[in-house]
Amino acid sequence: MAPTDVSALAERLGISAERIAGLSVCNQADVTHLDSLVAAAFTAEHEAVESGLRATLGAVPRPLRGRAKALLFPEDDA
Amino acid sequence: MTSLANRVEIIKLAHALDVPDTDLAILAPVPADDIRTVRQSLGEAIFAQHEPRFRRIAKLASMVPPQLSARIAQMALSPLLGARVAAVMDPALAVKLAGSLKTTYLADLSTALDPVRAEPILSRIEADLIVEVGRLLVERKEYVALGRFVSVIEPDTALKVIASATGRDLLQVALFAEDPIALDELVRRIDDQRLVDAIRAADEDGLYDDAVTLIASVSPTSRARLVPLITALDQAGLDAFATSLHSYDAWPAALPALAGLDDAALAALANCSATLTPGMLPRMVEVAHELELGALVDRLATLLDADHRKAAGKALTSS
Predict the structure, then answer these.
(1) Which of A35, B227, B233, B282 has the fewest CB atoms nearer than 10 Å to its CB?
(2) Which of B60, B58, B159 is nearest to B117 (CA)?
C-alpha cells in the first residue's frame, strides 16, 4: 500500500490539510491506516446507497420502473 | 497520555468508521479537535457523494400525497436511504411524512440520520412522537444516535426519552452527547437517584472511565453533584475511580468538586490504595496548587495517613 500523508487524507475528506494538521504527530503508516479506514467508509456508504436504490427500484411497479431507473441511476443512461 | 476529550472523539470516530475503538489507538496523541474534524468531514463527504440522488428522491416524494409517500418509503426505501433523503427534504413535508411512518421504521432511520441536518425537522415534530422513537432507541441501546439527538431536541423531551433508561444507558448516552451544554442541562434536571443509578452502573460494570468522562463533560455545578456520589463507592470503586482520574489527568475537572467533600469522604478517596501509585498524589497536589485550592492541600496534609503523606512527598510539604 502506498504511504499516505495528511494532505492526501484531507483531500479525500474535502478539507484543507491545516484543519487536521494535528494528525502529523502520527507516523506515515498510521495516517495510511486511518486513510484506508476512511476509504472503506466511503465504499461502504456507496454500496449501501447503491443496493438500497436497486431495492427501491425493484419495488417500483414495472410500468413505472424505466422512469424510476432514469431518476435513480441517471449514469446508466449515459 | 490520552485525554478524556480525545478518548470520546476516538470512540465516536470508530463508530463512524464501523471499526473497534482499538483500531484507532494510534490517534491517542492527536488533538481531539482534529479527530472531530475528521469525523465531521467524513460525514459531510460521504453524504455529498450521492446528495443529488437524495435530492431527486426528495423531489419525487413531494409529488405524491404524504401518506402514499410514507407507504412507499417504508416498503421500498432502506432506513439509510430514508435518513439521507429526509436530510434534504422540505422540513414541512418531512414532518407530515414522519407522522405517517411506523415508529420502528423511524427508529431504524434515526440511527443513520444526521441530527444537525435534520434539526429543522426535529424541531417541528410532535414531542410525543420523538419520545416514542427515542424510547425505542433506548430499548435498542442505540447510544450514539441518542447522544446526538439529546443535543438537538428540547430538554423536556430528552428527559422523557431517558425516563426509562437504566443507569448504564444514561452513562452511555452522556458519553456520546454531541453538545456539552445540552448534556449539562440534562444532568442538571436528572434527579439524584437516577445519577446514583448511573454511578452504580459504572461501578458494577467497571465503566469508571465513562463516569470520569461524564464528570469532565459537565459544568462545575453538576460535577459537585456527581463527585460525592462516586466517592460514596466502596474501596474497590474508589481505587478504580482514582486510577481513571489519574490516567486521563482529569484532576483539574475533579479537584474543585473534591474540595467540597467532607473530611471523611475526602480522606477515604485520598487514602485509597490507588493513590499510592507513584506520581498520583504529587499530581493531585500540583493541580490543587495550580487551581489555587490551598485549603484542599491543607486538608490533605492533615487527612492523609503516613504512607500516603510519604507518597505525596515534597509536593505536600512545599505548600
Answers:
(1) B282
(2) B58
Q: What angle do CA A41, A34, B118 make, to 5 degrees?
A: 40
Instruction: Count how many residues are written for chain A.
Output: 78
Tell if the CB–CB gap between B46 and A45 is shorter than 8 Å: yes
| Separation between Cα atoms, residue B125 and residue B275, nearest integer Å | 50
Tens-digit pLDDT profile for chain B (319 aa)? 567 888 889 999 999 999 999 999 999 999 999 999 999 999 999 999 999 999 988 888 888 888 888 888 888 889 999 999 999 999 999 999 998 999 999 999 999 998 888 889 988 999 999 999 999 999 999 998 999 888 889 989 999 999 888 888 988 898 888 888 888 998 888 888 888 888 888 888 888 888 898 888 899 999 999 998 888 888 999 999 999 999 999 999 999 999 999 999 999 999 999 999 999 999 999 999 999 999 999 999 999 999 999 999 887 876 5
pTM of the complete model: 0.83
Q: Which residue has the cell 407522522?
A: B99
Spell out which residues of chain A touch residue B56, defining contact as CB-CB under 8 Å: 71-72
Q: Please name the residues in contact with B59: beta carbons below 8 A apart, sequence gap of 6 or more.
A: none
> Distance (Å) from the C-alpha of residue A17 to the closest C-alpha of chain B?
10
- Residue B112 touches chain A, beta carbons under 8 Å: no
- What CA–CA distance (Å, rounded) separates B189 from B185? 6
Cell triple for residue A46? 456507496
Interatomic CA distance for residues B232 and B216, integer angstroms: 18
DSSP A53: H
Q: What is the DSSP string of B274-311?
A: GGGSTTHHHHHHHHHHHTT-HHHHHHHHHHS-HHHHHH
| Element at B295 (helix H, strand E) | helix B294-303
Q: How far apart are CA B162 and CA B153, in angstroms?
A: 12
CB contact under 8 A, A14 and B41: yes
